[in-house]
Amino acid sequence: MDLPKTLEHLQSDEPLLSAALYNLSKIDPEEVEQVIAIWPLLQVERRRAMVKELVDISEDNFEVDFEPVFRWGLTDSDATVRATCVEGLWENEDLRLMDELLNLLTGDLSIQVRAAAAQSLGRFLLLCELGKVNFERCRPVYETLFEIIALEAEDIDVRRRAIESVAYVGNDEVVALLEDAYCHSDEKMRVSAIFGMGRSADARWIDIVVQELYSTNPEMRYEAARACGELEARAAVPRLATLVNDPDREVRESAVWALGQAGGDTARRILLTCCEDGDEAIRDAAAAALEELEFMYSRLDFPFHSVDDAEDDLLQ
């Protein structure tokens, strides 16, 4: 199916074909105009389904590029379409997009869109932390996110996504922000604080995130496990070993991933056991984590057993 036939298909009542949508990848400016021309003719549910499927394809196939479609979708009249298109641009590091996202964060009427924009802006602060972009160019992002966080009239989902984004910046102002968020009365805000602690790559938070591995809230356990992995928290391995049997599958997968990041003999043995799990998703996650762990240690000059024999005592 070529592009004209794909556009005809989009305007039809036929079930949406994923294969047809690949023709929207890497389209040139003239083809973009063709897509824009038929866009208003599509019913809102069709546009929602289309951009959602494009996001799913992008996550499964890194060779596709639907950027022009997603950029146009940021102007759609439907909030769900706009928010989904923000998600679809998650790898885009164009500073012009940064400015567009700032406009959505401060001007869009939809909480869903503002939250998506707040979440998406974090990668530009990461680029600054990595030295790829001058911080002064991204200062408006940092300052605007802090303004949003301080705005009590703003929806908490927008504010907490803003906290997650500024967590990339390693300074005392962000440390204080994460401390305050962790003490917040709203559980969602505390979950975002744990997320941000992991994202910060600051070892000062290890004790707190390990403690939250024991939370009764599965969302908190999930984010705490992810944070332990990002912090490469070897102290978390004993508890992560129990979370690989958590009632919540997402928590189990998060714990498996974190074990691969934490590393060590004990983590490796647990992952080998997980490779025999009855759940295919857990087996796949364990295999991927084990591969990453062994790749990491292949770059070191000492074997697994020289770094964490004491962990076995903690698991007894």
Q: How would you sum up this structure, described in words?
A:
With 316 residues, the protein is an all-alpha fold. It has 20 helices and no strands.
Brief account:
By secondary structure, this protein is mainly alpha-helical. It has 20 helices and no strands.
Name its key features:
20 helices, disordered C terminus, mainly alpha, Leucine-rich Repeat Variant, globular, 316 residues
CATH class of one domain: Mainly Alpha
Number of strands: 0
Provide the succession of SSEs. Answer: HHHHHHHHHHHHHHHHHHHH
Which fold name fills CATH's third level, the topology of one domain?
Leucine-rich Repeat Variant
Question: Which CATH-level-2 architecture of one domain?
Answer: Alpha Horseshoe
CATH superfamily of one domain: Leucine-rich Repeat Variant
> For the terminal residues, how far apart are their CA atoms?
60 Å
The major beta sheet can be summarized as: none
Topology of this structure?
Elements: H1 3-11, H2 18-21, H3 29-38, H4 44-60, H5 67-73, H6 79-88, H7 95-107, H8 111-120, H9 122-129, H10 135-150, H11 156-166, H12 172-182, H13 187-200, H14 206-211, H15 218-230, H16 237-243, H17 249-262, H18 265-274, H19 280-298, H20 311-315
Helix pairs in contact: 1-3, 4-6, 5-6, 6-8, 7-8, 8-11, 9-10, 10-11, 11-13, 12-13, 13-15, 15-17, 16-17, 17-18, 17-19, 18-19
